[in-house]
Amino acid sequence: MNISELLLPISDFLKCPTPQSWIDEAIKPENLPTLLVDHANCELKAAQTAMLLLRRYAVDKDSGDALLAWLKPYEDFVYRKVGNGDFSDHVNLSKKLISKSNFEHGDELISKMVLLIKEELHHFQQVWEIMQSRGVEYDNLTASRYARGMMKHVRTHEPAKLIDTLICGAYIEARSCERFAKLAPHLDQELNTFYVSLLRSEARHFQDYLNLAQKVSVEDITQRVDFFAKEEAQLIDSDDNEFRFHSGY
Ligand SMILES: [Fe+2]
Ligand SMILES: [Fe+2]
Known about the structure:
Blueprint: H1 3-13, H2 20-26, H3 32-58, H4 61-80, H5 106-133, H6 145-151, H7 160-183, H8 189-216, H9 222-236
C-alpha cells in the first residue's frame, strides 16, 4: 500500500485537515525543539494509555505489574529525570501477559496493545536519539489541551467508558498520522524519512482502536464516532494559545 492509499481512511475519518497556519508554525526552525520534545512526550503517552487499558480491563495483577515495570524506566527518565536516557538494556516486556477471564475481548486487546506499546516505545527512542544528535534538551513541556479536551467527554459507566476511550485513541492516532504526513515534506531529510516511516504503524494503531471499539460495543458506534469527530475538529480548527504537536492554531 502506498502512502496516499494509507492516508485515505485517515482523511475520511477526520472531520477537518490540519490548518495551514499550524503547519506554518510547526516548520519554523525555532519551534523544532518544542515539536520534538512534544512528539517524544506523545509517544510515551500513547504507550501509557495502552498500558492503562490493559491494566484496567485485560490483565491479571502480576501481568499489570510487569507492564508497569516495562514502562517505568521511560517514565522515570521523562518525569523524574532519573537515568541517562539509555534504554538499550531495557527493551522488552519481561513476561507473558495473562488475561482476566471476565473480559471477552481480553486476548485481542492484549495482542493489539502490547504491539502498540512496543512500537510507541521504539518511536519514543527514535525521537530521543534525534533530539540528542541535535542537542535538544528534554525540557518539561506542558501537555496541550487536545487529549484532555477529548477525554473529558468519555462517559463514566461501562462499557461506554471503554468504548469512548478507544474512540479517543483512534482520533489521537489518526491525527498524529495526518500531521506526520503533512509535516514530512517540509522537514530536513532525516526528519522527513523518520516521519514517513511512522505513518504505517500510526495508521494501523488508528484502525486497531476503532475496530476494538466496535467489537466491545453491542450497538453501532457510528453516532459516537461522529460526536468525537466534531469535538476533535473543534480542537484542531480553532485558536490555541500554545504551539504543540496536537494544538490548534
Ligand atoms: Fe507512535
Ligand atoms: Fe501510535
